[in-house]
Design goal:
The structure holds two protein chains of two kinds.
Chain A lengths: L1 H32 L6 H12 L4 H22 L9 H39 L2 H7 L4 H39 L4 H11 L2 H28 L6 H30 L1
Helix pairs in contact in A: 1-6, 2-6, 3-4, 3-6, 4-6, 4-8, 4-9, 6-8, 8-9
Chain B lengths: L3 E10 L2 E11 L4 E5 L6 H8 L7 E6 L2 E2 L5 H10 E4 L11 H12 L5 H15 L14 H13 L5 E5 L7 H16 L3 E5 L3 H7 L2 E6 L2 E6 L1 H6 L3 H18 L1
Parallel strand pairs in B: 3-8, 3-9, 6-7, 7-8
Antiparallel strand pairs in B: 1-2, 1-4, 4-5, 9-10
Classes of the chains: A mainly alpha, B alpha/beta.
Chain lengths: 259, 251
């Protein structure tokens, strides 16, 4: 019993150190990525296209719907407590600081996180990774780094895009309930938007991008021999992404309120 | 010409010892063939010797330099002169035939012009007998075509050290003839070839140096005639089994 526990603990520590080594190598390779001619630059473009560009529709739709829901709820509920002026701070809190980065992250986990882990897992099983090594191509530089940069940059930009549509969406709904001048609406809204909100939102989306891309590539490479390992590792990648995104979100929010 | 040596190499995967304390030296400029029953570790030995799998213990020496402790530049130089043909082709599934061949060229010759690259790719594809579109993906190719493209990918960078992991397995006769012709050309050149063939007839014809394997160990080494006349009971049994299997396959 004690022996089993000891072995489990040693394996766990080894696993953690291996993961740390992987993250360190990806960070190091990222620094050198833009130097010289890199075959991975095409992979980076494709990753930004897939993670960023192809997600624009769904992000716009969700952001506008969320902005609309907040305004409808705010306009109907808050006046009952004499707190109508809280509508804008709530909108900023939810769209910019909290749900914007988190919802974008969830969408990217579902779309790109799963796709990356699956693709790399299949690359391992079909010996494509060995073929990269044999051809003198570092799989980390060619497969992991472009995805790391692509997902992180895409998430950062999607968060800005989400904010834009979330705040625009709320404006359009306001026009149905209680028409206001666009200049008045946005002046009021922006007066509640503080640099800390932008910083918190940016930090979160940056951290989420790093977490999602590293989890997906790490678990993709953890597949060893069998194709049945691929879905298992995809599930682990998704689980780890959710857990670490939520934890990091809680930490950044905590720092925001306790600073 | 390049030499490949393994010193006390052991390779363990999933708690299973696949290679057990192997010491062997593959001569430079010769064709060396690894012979043995299925599952004895031939492919793993090739992959360890090619630096695709790091050994659990022991050393892999390329021209006397330890593969594990080579600098990045030395390793890149080794990759530039070597290539590996996989048993299952291992083509990059999300790339076209053209991209499968152009990527290694781009990596090893970044200054090559597009025209030059295209010329090289088309010429090597013609040489291996591939006649279909270069824009097809591996999934759209037949098994034989995949093997041809795999061989073309390995040869497009004009390597001097070639690892062949059973490239002719499950290939139809028309493709087989073309691929055999290329392999014979490699044999006649002064390149170092380390191979694992399923066919004993090809092995007999091409082998300068043979290593007989059993259960992760090398049990006999020597020229092909040494192997065929050896008195080592384990090696004799393996050779007899392979010859019988080869004969029944051909019948």
């Amino acid at each position: 019993m004690l022996g089993t526990l000891g072995r489990w603990f040693i394996d766990y520590i080894k696993g953690q150190l291996y993961a740390l080594g992987f993250f360190f190598k990806v960070f190091k390779a990222t620094i050198h990525f833009f130097k010289g001619k890199q075959a991975g630059k095409k992979v980076l473009t494709m990753q930004i296209l897939f993670t960023g560009f192809e997600t624009l529709n769904i992000i716009a739709l969700i952001a506008m719907a969320l902005g609309a829901v907040i305004i409808i709820q705010g306009v109907s509920l808050l006046p009952q407590f004499g707190q109508r002026e809280l509508t804008f701070p709530i909108l900023i809190t939810i769209i910019t600081r909290e749900l914007g980065p988190m919802l974008c992250a969830f969408i990217i986990i579902a779309r790109s996180g799963t796709a990356i882990a699956t693709e790399i897992g299949h690359n391992v099983v079909s010996h494509e990774i060995e073929a990269y090594i044999a051809s003198g191509i570092d799989p980390l530089t060619y497969l992991a780094v472009p995805r790391f940069i692509g997902v992180t940059v895409s998430l950062l930009l999607l968060n800005i895009y989400f904010n834009f549509f979330g705040l625009i969406g709320s404006f359009f709904i306001t026009q149905f309930i209680e028409p206001v001048q666009a200049s008045d609406y946005f002046r009021k809204l922006l007066s509640y938007l503080r640099p800390e909100d932008i910083l918190s939102s940016t930090l979160k989306s940056l951290a989420f991008g790093i977490i999602i891309s590293l989890s997906a590539t790490y678990y993709g490479f953890k597949v060893e021999q069998s194709s049945t390992e691929v879905p298992q590792m995809v599930i682990k990648a998704v689980g780890a992404s959710f857990v670490y995104c939520i934890l990091v979100d809680a930490v950044i929010t905590l720092i925001y309120y306790t600073r | 010409m390049h030499t490949v040596q393994l010193e006390h190499v052991t390779f363990i995967r999933n708690n299973r010892k696949i290679l057990n304390d192997i010491t062997i030296s593959f001569p430079a400029g010769k064709t060396s063939v690894i012979i043995g029953p299925s599952g004895c570790g031939k492919s793993t030995l090739l992959k360890v010797a090619a630096g695709l799998f790091p050994p659990t213990s022991g050393k892999v020496l390329i021209d006397g330099k330890n593969l594990l402790t080579m600098s990045k530049r030395q390793l890149q130089n080794f990759r530039m002169v070597s290539s590996f043909v996989f048993q299952d082709a291992a083509l990059w599934a999300n790339k076209s035939v053209y991209e499968n061949l152009s990527l290694p060229l781009q990596i090893h010759n970044p200054d090559i012009t597009r025209d030059e690259r295209d010329r090289k790719i088309l010429s090597i594809l013609k040489e291996v007998g591939y006649t279909d579109s270069i824009h097809l993906r591996p999934a759209q190719l037949s098994n034989g075509e995949r093997k041809m493209v795999s061989l073309a990918r390995a040869l497009v960078t004009t390597p001097h050290l070639i690892y062949l992991d059973n490239p002719l397995i499950l290939v139809d006769p028309s493709v087989l003839a073309k691929m055999q012709k290329l392999i014979i050309a490699m044999y006649k050149s002064s390149e170092t070839v380390i191979a694992n063939f399923s066919s004993i007839s090809l092995t007999k014809r091409l082998t300068d140096f043979a290593a007989v394997m059993k259960d992760g160990r090398v049990i006999f080494t020597g020229s092909m005639s040494d192997v065929l006349t050896c008195k080592e009971p384990e090696a004799v049994k393996i050779i007899e089994d392979i010859i019988t299997r080869d004969y029944s396959n051909s019948v």
